[in-house]
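## retry 2 of 3
previous attempt timed out at serialization; input unchanged, resubmitting
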Amino acid sequence: MSGRFRKYLHVNASDAAAWGMAGPALAGICIFILTPFLLAVFLSFTNLALGSPLPLEFVGFRQYRVIFTDTGFSRALLNNLLFLTGIVPTQTLLALMLALMLNQRLKGIAIYRTLFFMPVVFPMSLIAVIWTLIYAPGPDGLMNTFLGIVTFGAWEPRDFTNHPHLALPAIMLLSVWQGVGFQMVVLLAGLQGIPENLYEAAAIDGAGRWSRFVHVTLPGLRNPLIFVIIITSILSFRVFDQVRIMTRGGPRNATTTVVFEAVRVGFDRGQVAMGAAMSVIFFLIVLLITVIQRRLLKQEGVQ
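## retry succeeded, writing output
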């Protein structure tokens, strides 16, 4: 057997082993992600509705035309964009500040890291119920009481979850509190992966604390920051639980999101085909935003 042939068999054996290890993951992706998505695409071109006496028919792009002329879906998409533009920079900046603060060699620092990460472990349904109590209307509500103390009585009690201009910011505040711990852990791991000798070399060159942060810390956190921004953007479009529990999309669709609208149309109203079309549009929007963010952040890193 020639050496070239033995090398060929070795390469193919390695490829087969790699594919064998990746097989279960690929099977899971095909079963739980690819197949449901293709089924949603198929259903979006039909007239399927629960309880309808009409037979299943292909109607082309009718569902998509109805969706893009529906003011409810347009408002849901706008709310998602507002949620994204408010959550992503706020949560990323706060997570970076917490990671820098907790990246210290202090006594009991592990306890503080656990406390900040703890909200991530709790289910969103439980957190939404707790924050509903915090946002309770009237002067006895915790948030109204706190704001009244801070403003020395100038704050007038409000019903946050039923106010057309305060309901969405109220849900955004809850989401930041619940999710910032995950981003903090990712950035904290990135900080601990930066070699200490880089800081020592910068200090020897006379760089101050701000210069070391700009020229050592931020470049070292480039990949974790990209990951955090992309994941936070995706999660911003997946907002559902807190909306369903706290506001049910109200008041006057002020907190309706794309996922909530798709679930309401597909399950509450029984319009399965239209809900599937909204899900397909949702997937394409998230994919587009992810690709654009990845390209922009990659270009900034090259420069």
